[in-house]
Amino acid sequence: MNPQEDKCLESLDRKLTMELGRVTEAAAVAAATLRGHGDEKAADQAAVDAMRRELNYLPIDGVVRIGEGERDEAPMLYIGEEVGTGDGPALDVALDPLEGTTICAKNTPNSLAVIALARTGNLLYAPDVYMDKIAIGPGYAKNVIDLEAPASENIKALAKEKGVKPSQISACVLDRPRHAPIIEEIRSTGASIRLIGDGDVAGVIHTTNSEETGIDIYIGTGGAPEGVLAAAALRCTGGQMFGRLVIKNDEQRERTIGMGISDPTQIFSMEEMAKGDVLFAATGVTDGNFLKGVKFNQDNIVTDTVVMRSSTGTIRYIKGVHSDISKFHLKD
Ligand code: VTB
Asked: Within 10 Å of residue 22's Cβ, how many Cβ atoms?
C-alpha cells in the first residue's frame, strides 16, 4: 500500500469509528424494546436485524468473523457473511448484537450491543467454543497475570502490584457451577467476587476502569467469540488479557484447526486475538456499570455509547438523543 492510500484508509477509519456507534445504537434500541419481556430469542433477533441493516450502510468491504454462528445455524450475521457496501477497506468484523440475551430478557445490568473492526486477518477467527480468560485493566507491569497460575496467585500478584491487600481486590466471575473451584480459590485470598449471570464482554471491560466499576480482574471460562470482542475492546483501553480455547472433543479440534488456528491449545494474548488498528463500539441495552441502558422518552430515545480506536487510544462516550425515532424501524 502506498503512503497516500494508507492515509486515505487512516481517515476512513477515523470516520468509521464514529459510524460504528450508529450500528450499536440501532441494535441496542431494537433489543431494548424487548427488554424485560423474558424472551431472549425475540430480543436477540430484533438486535440482529437492526445491526445488520445499519452495518450494511457502512462503507466497508467487511466479512463477519465473529458472529451469530455458522451459516447453517444463523440466517443473519453468520460467520463468513459479507457486510457493508463493499466499497472501502477489507475488514474483519466481530459482533454481538445482543451480548447478554438473558440479562436483557430479565432487564438486569450490563447487556450490550457490541462490534469490533480490524483489517482482514487481524482478528482471531475463534470457533463457538469456550475460552479460559483472565484480564486486568491498564497501568500494571507486564505479565502480572498468568492464565496458567492458580486464581489465588493471580489475585495476590495483582494486589501486590496495585499496592493493596488481596482483600481489597475485586474479581468478576460468571456465576456457573464450573467456576466453583475458581471461586473458592479467589475467596481463600480474602478477595471479593462479583458474580455475574452473563455478559463477560462487559465483565472484562469493567477491569479497565476499576475506580468506576469496582472490578480489578476478570477470571473464568466464557464464550470464545466474546473473548475476541473483549480483547478488541482492551486493545483500545489498554490492559492485559489472555485466553485459551477449551477444546472438548475431536470435532471441536478439527473445526478450530479448520478456522486457521493450528495449535488449539495456544494461549493467546489480547494482541494476538485482535491485531493492528482495532475499532470497537458498544451501546448499553440495560443499565450497566459503564454504560446506561436505552431510555424511551416521550419525545426521543436516548442511547449511551462508547466508541474507541486502538491506534490512538481515544475513547469517546456518546450520548445520543434521537428525536427522529422512525429511523429505528420499531414495531408497534
Ligand atoms: C458468556 C457470557 C455470554 O455466554 O460468554 C457465556 O458472556 C458463556 O456460556 O453473555 P455459558 O452461558 O454456557 O456459560 C453468554 O452467557 C451468552 O452467550
From this structure: 21
